[in-house]
Amino acid sequence: MAQLTCEHLWLGYEGRPVLEDLSFSVQAGDYLCIVGENGSGKTTLMRTILGLQKPMRGNIRFGDGLREGGIGYLPQQTNVQKDFPATVRKVVLSGCQARLKNRPFYSRADKKRAEENMNKMGIGAFAKHCFRELSGGQQQRVLLARALCATDKLLFLDEPVSGLDPNVTAEMYALIRSLNREGVTILMISHDLASAVKDASHILAVGESVFFGTKEGWLAEKGGERL
Ligand SMILES: Nc1ncnc2c1ncn2[C@@H]1O[C@H](COP(=O)(O)OP(=O)(O)OP(=O)(O)O)[C@@H](O)[C@H]1O
């Protein structure tokens, strides 16, 4: 059973479609890279899968232990987020918010989870530092730890390496790879087609040419022409 199934999705704004009749599915452990030109609808698709906006038509089904709202999400970095005046621990802990339900405070289990994820992402030493004082790469690790507090099943990453220098980019990809090898399903929006093809198991291309399938299928179809 798939973790995520999108069937004949039509997405758009005010009755005008951006994406038409899109169908694909994601199995546990997949690494799906979503590629497409600027304005092709990648962010719209992500927002729809996260439940932040409704499709015009079609269905999204969750399965294999994944439920709606159970997706860890790493947003595209904005300048506002970069200046966030909170400690690293607070930012990571905020990933547990969905678990709070009606409790006003984080539980001991939430705090332990945040601690573990900070250590896992190699930012434990920065717990008391202010988020905005960290480098771009460290900030992305903090946001990954935050996303992991929401779930260890499926992470949705929106251009996780944009603005990072090549060394930090390579580190970030390695971190994402290792999470995927541990069994975390990865959905990643990317402009970096070469890296996408290296790490991904599946490719979803939206925009002028639509494709969904395995990386091998994508390479066979494209014959390397777009890389
Ligand atoms: N809130 C909105 N209201 C109306 N139209 C919107 C809204 N948000 C996005 N759009 C339009 O929908 C289309 C798809 O936008 P979207 O942000 O999903 O593309 P994208 O593939 O994520 O682009 P990029 O690569 O630049 O981030 C664009 O034409 C955009 O102008």
Automatic annotation (TrEMBL):
Keywords from the UniProt entry: ATP-binding, Nucleotide-binding
Name assigned to this protein: ABC transporter ATP-binding protein
Source superkingdom: Bacteria
